[in-house]
Amino acid sequence: MIFRRPIKHCRECGTAVAYRLPDDGDTRERAICPACGTIHYENPLMVVGTVPVLGERVLLCKRNIEPRWGKWTLPAGFMELDETTAQGAARETDEEAGARIEIGPLFSLLNVPQVGQVHIFYLATLLSDRFDPGHETIEARLFREDEIPWDEISFRTVKKTLEQFFADRRAGRFGMHSFDIL
Amino acid sequence: MIFRRPIKHCRECGTAVAYRLPDDGDTRERAICPACGTIHYENPLMVVGTVPVLGERVLLCKRNIEPRWGKWTLPAGFMELDETTAQGAARETDEEAGARIEIGPLFSLLNVPQVGQVHIFYLATLLSDRFDPGHETIEARLFREDEIPWDEISFRTVKKTLEQFFADRRAGRFGMHSFDIL
Ligand SMILES: [Zn+2]
Ligand SMILES: [Zn+2]
Asked: Do the chains contact at A86 and B178, CB–CB below 8 Å?
């Protein structure tokens, strides 16, 4: 996770910036360069991931990185510039679990304004039960609903997505769900 | 719109950065500071907006800013750090059209990887036909489907969202739709 620190220097020229209202009618303070005038915008980050399913079971990864080292998560990570949300979700699933999947429909969108993030999860079908976790993952494992380590889930967005997944499965119909984690 | 330029200087200390692979296993080149070691990540930007509906008609705004000055758009803009996607969509609708709305369900998610953006539109119900456009808008106007200026729409994400809106309305059911604009 990236924690937001104030911008100190201009990305264009390196001069120390000052936070103030721009002159263009903008109503928010931005980091503005007194030397070259560059206005630096800070925007939410997108986290993209999957709910990888094999029959009755869902794939979780035990985190080998901070924050939440040793906790269980759905495969997910920061979206990169040159990919779509679905491509990013599939890439993270490959990187963190080494899992072969077929990506499915968009399942959840979760706002986390306290950290300036939007998390998006896609349903995915696992094509194999063989995994090859990357260096960010201690262990990749399949869980039935009654085996999910609910008290050891890394993030509220992951917990909410898993809860909704099992609720939808019981209802026999998967929808697209929005949540605000406040 | 923000066009991405390479990062030239470190946001922490102002030193000139170099693009190279980090030492942490990352497989992409990042702007890294040779002085303080800060790794600068660049991530997609989220654009949030609404499809504001009053009976048979949809609200469009004639842009008073570049790019696409003078073209028609749905109210939309860059999401800010301290808001949810729905709050951002409502804020942009207020700023660009001065329109009073009740925000509805998530309607479209459009990837535009060529510019590193993800656009999200919510359905919205207009509570009044009186508008008070801000400085970014020349004119805010309601259009029936047969009045939409299809050749004068500002962005492909807006055109796609409008097309899908009218298709869903004809079908009598509004869904949630994902598109990749490649
Ligand atoms: Zn500068
Ligand atoms: Zn530095």
From this structure: yes
